[in-house]
């Protein structure tokens, strides 16, 4: 990929115990995109982030940050990357302003009070600049972590479970912050347990399971490629069991026999819907309502992980 700001090839991590946390992951992150990395607990999401950020040493493979090896030229890599970890680790007795200012200095950036002020205002933290970290709510602490990660003006921002333990309203605020960062040109990679977060925010989605990247696609392409639709017929009379004449459609009954469900591939040459409806009519099965629903990203994610585990 020509416009990859981050290029990962054959990235592996194995521990002395024999556990393989990552298995030859290949991934390109495009400049200026929001990339969501989904996966169950222990799938390797945090390991991948920690390797790219220089916290964990890989067992093999390469990571290029804007064309430069992240191990050979680690100063370049670290200056380009900001990380907001899952854990809220801050000095409880420091003020918001000094916490963020100190973080900028750690990366060798000269003092720039105007830039810090702009950053804190953008994250709605300026009014809290004198407050001690211990006095802040969980949501505000999360904002400070983002401010710390952005204090040295990185081009790439990693958000590891940015809305974990945050209420719905603050989660929405966080999404707004991420959108603003993207509009500023920041490349964002986020891991999340909230599928709706990826569906709402991401340009592309990757799915990782047991250390392997099993999908990485534009969100809409992934949903079109793997998405299925569900046809639901609300029956005039409840059905105790599905007639044998309907066996070829692999139907399911829901709502104590009141709803007949048919799942089909939207991209198939023949969906089977017209023939199903004809057969239902021929059998004299009456229905009061008919509805279809497109698979969500959550359905797709669950399906992919289930397939991977079944191998």
TrEMBL record:
Signal peptide boundaries: none
Listed Gene3D superfamilies: P-loop containing nucleotide triphosphate hydrolases
Keywords, alphabetical: ATP-binding, Nucleotide-binding, Transport
Alphabetical list of SUPFAM superfamilies matching this protein: P-loop containing nucleoside triphosphate hydrolases
GO molecular function list: ATP binding; ATP hydrolysis activity
Superkingdom of origin organism: Bacteria
Ranges where the ABC transporter domain occurs: 6-235
Protein known as: ABC transporter ATP-binding protein
Species this chain originates from: Sphingomonas edaphi
């Amino acid at each position: 990929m020509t416009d990859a700001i981050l290029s990962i090839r054959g990235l592996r991590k194995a521990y002395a115990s024999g556990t393989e946390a990552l298995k030859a992951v290949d991934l390109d992150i495009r400049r200026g995109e929001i990339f969501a990395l989904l996966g169950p607990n222990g799938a390797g999401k945090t390991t991948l982030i920690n390797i790219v950020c220089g916290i964990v040493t890989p067992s093999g493979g390469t990571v290029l940050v804007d064309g430069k090896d992240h191990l050979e030229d680690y100063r370049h890599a670290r200056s380009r990357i900001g990380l907001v970890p899952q854990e809220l680790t801050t000095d409880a007795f420091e003020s918001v302003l000094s916490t963020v200012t100190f973080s900028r200095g750690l990366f060798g950036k000269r003092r720039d009070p105007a830039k810090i002020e702009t950053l804190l205002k953008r994250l709605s933290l300026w009014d809290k600049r004198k407050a001690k970290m211990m006095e802040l709510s969980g949501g505000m602490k999360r904002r400070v972590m983002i401010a710390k990660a952005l204090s040295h003006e990185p081009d790439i921002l990693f958000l590891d479970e940015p809305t974990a333990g945050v209420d719905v309203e603050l989660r929405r605020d966080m999404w707004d912050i991420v959108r603003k960062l993207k509009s500023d040109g920041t490349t964002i990679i986020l891991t999340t347990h909230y599928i709706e977060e990826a569906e709402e925010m991401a340009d592309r989605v990757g799915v990782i399971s047991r250390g392997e990247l099993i999908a990485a696609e534009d969100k809409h392409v992934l949903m079109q490629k793997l998405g299925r639709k569900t046809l639901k017929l609300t029956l005039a009379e409840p059905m105790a069991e599905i007639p044998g004449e309907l066996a070829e459609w692999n139907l399911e009954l829901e709502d104590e026999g009141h709803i007949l469900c048919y799942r089909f591939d939207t991209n198939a040459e023949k969906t089977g819907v017209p023939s199903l409806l004809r057969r239902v009519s021929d059998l004299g099965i009456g229905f009061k309502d008919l509805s279809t629903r497109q698979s969500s990203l959550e359905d797709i994610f669950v399906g992919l992980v289930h397939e991977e585990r079944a191998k």
